[in-house]
Design the sequence.
């Protein structure tokens, strides 16, 4: 009897119900929607947020507001903000990545006025 080497697609990973249904593999890239231009840009898996902002901002029109940070959003959920050294991540169904500009968050760079 001859044994053959197991191929990557041969093994079935059990799902929650014990069947062979496993979630699809993660995409090898992340998509980020630029709020200034409306364009969707693709970045390799593991790309850092700092580089994402650099790449997006350098392609903007001269008067378009620059991206300040990247966040993951989903209806009914609090956004997840990515710091500069955070790698982009896919949080699953319904979550999407987008940039945030100063126009999206009015007053973000202004100290509140004290009332007298």
Sequence:
């Amino acid at each position: 009897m001859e044994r053959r080497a197991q191929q990557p697609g041969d093994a079935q990973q059990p799902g929650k119900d014990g069947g062979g249904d496993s979630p699809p593999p993660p995409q090898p890239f992340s998509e980020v929607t630029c709020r200034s231009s409306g364009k969707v840009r693709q970045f390799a898996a593991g790309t850092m947020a700092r580089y994402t902002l650099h790449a997006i901002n350098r392609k903007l029109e001269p008067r378009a507001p620059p991206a300040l940070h990247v966040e993951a959003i989903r209806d009914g959920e609090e956004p997840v903000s990515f710091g500069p050294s955070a790698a982009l991540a896919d949080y699953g169904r319904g979550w999407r990545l987008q940039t945030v500009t100063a126009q999206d968050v009015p007053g973000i760079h202004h100290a509140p006025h004290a009332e007298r």
Summary: The domain at 29-101 is CATH 3.10.20.90 (Ubiquitin-like (UB roll)). Helices lie at 49-57. The chain has a mean pLDDT of 82. The longest strand covers residues 67-73.
